[in-house]
Design a protein that fits this description.
single chain, Lipocalin, 1 helix, about 50% strand, disordered N terminus
């Protein structure tokens, strides 16, 4: 009987330990993410599917939660980066948030939120500015 109780307790401990092990997409490793589908929403209009370039997003970008930065390269090879101002783990998801001033001197600042599934790397992102919202879906891989 003592052996059975010991084995049950051991199994419960192992199960709990397994549930707390982080996935590859928990922010402990650098990620490369791809924007796969982008929707742009404007007031009084239906949202429409657009290319990443038409809304000033790179096709691919890097996520480094350790240094709290998102970096990417636009079509013309121009490097862009934005700081991650907040991140947390919630229900198996890595949640990143920040704000970006956009083009210097332009009134184009946005607030954004990105959610990455910590187990499989699926990514959803929103960015909201003055009179528009961008919704992006994609996927991430570890670097």
């Amino acid at each position: 009987m003592k052996v059975i109780i010991h084995n049950v307790l051991l199994a419960v401990c192992l199960l709990q330990a397994d549930l707390t092990v982080a996935g590859d997409f928990d922010g402990s490793k650098s990620l490369v993410c791809a924007n796969q589908m982008i929707n742009e929403c404007l007031p009084g209009q239906r949202c429409r599917t657009v290319t990443p370039q038409s809304v000033n997003l790179p096709n691919f970008f890097n996520v480094d939660a350790g240094s709290k930065m998102l970096t990417g390269r636009h079509n013309g090879g121009i490097e862009a980066s934005t700081p991650v101002e907040r991140y947390e783990h919630l229900d198996g998801k890595l949640i990143l948030q920040g704000g970006d001033d956009g083009i210097e001197g332009a009134d184009d600042g946005t607030g954004w939120t990105m959610v990455i599934d910590e187990k499989i790397g699926n990514m959803s992102m929103t960015a909201a500015g003055n009179g528009y919202v961008i919704v992006a879906f994609g996927a991430c891989i570890t670097r």
